[in-house]
Amino acid sequence: MKPQYFIAILFATSLYWMYLLYSPFILTILIAALLAVSTSSIQCYLEKTLHSKFLASLVSSLLLSALFFAPLGYFLTTLTIQLNTVNPVDMVKIDIYIKEFIASPPEYLSFLVPYINEALQNLNTSTVTANAIFVTGKIGAFSAGFLKNAFLVIIFYFFAQYNGSYVLTFLKRVIQMSVEDTTLLVKELSAVMSVVFYSIITTAMFEGILFGIAISFMGYNGLLFGIMYGFASLVPVVGGIIMWLPFMVYEFAIGNNSSAIFIAVYSVVVISIIADTFIKPLIIKAINQQILDEDDTKMNELLIFFAIIAGLATFGFWGMILGPAITAFFLTILKLFEAKSQEYKTTVDLSKS
To answer: In which element (H, E) is residue 171 found?
Structure first.
């Protein structure tokens, strides 16, 4: 057996066992690596300011925890507590209001009655309360699992920031690609992921703040529901509706008609139309101009939009990061393939001449 064949067999065997060893953490490591790529500009700035890669990686990890995972942890913990204190009287009021509304709906909603009557036959206060308790347990279990995964993401994110340049240099030497090709691949992926990451965070915070301010004037926890709206806004089309519609129904059920109308009109006009339709593209455009140079890849917003939808549908919450990353990687490979094809064609033409 030739030595190179023996080494190839050893490599394949070791790769298989590495996969078995780290398979539970592959998705977590990938998310951490993509977040490190997305925030590489912050890491470079911190390294220049602090003159220490270790301190820069530590500070960037703490910033990620504070800006991303801390609100999620607060949201999950507080929501679990809130669901454990559900008032049964309010549940009865909501039950009665929904049934009365369906029994005599407005003329323009009468077509929905046949689809909902069957579901309402088994709806009563006891089943709603039992479901609320069941959902509370599920959210509590999800909270514990999410906090564990968040901790692992932060740990891997720190090592990705601290050792990323060494790993990247090593991969450039190992893989059979030119330095120009690997540089192009990393540059374009970093550019796309940076724009996606900062756009998602900025727009979610902006819309969450708008909703939190409005809901706080109605006597609710503006911080909690602002965070909830921010994450709900990541779901295209229906994200905002799943937040303001329950508030509208609840306010109607307890007799606060003016508050119900206010939260519906405010959410649709101010957040969905003005903020999401007109202000959000301006935010993304500003981020594009700040992050991308003239020679960098320009974002196709429609393509990124569908990439986020596909990612959320396939991978769940983390799909908003994975979807655009996979799409950007694929498009960059196509660009490299096109460049190689043009190079080969030029070489053939020169040889013929």
So the answer is: helix 125-174
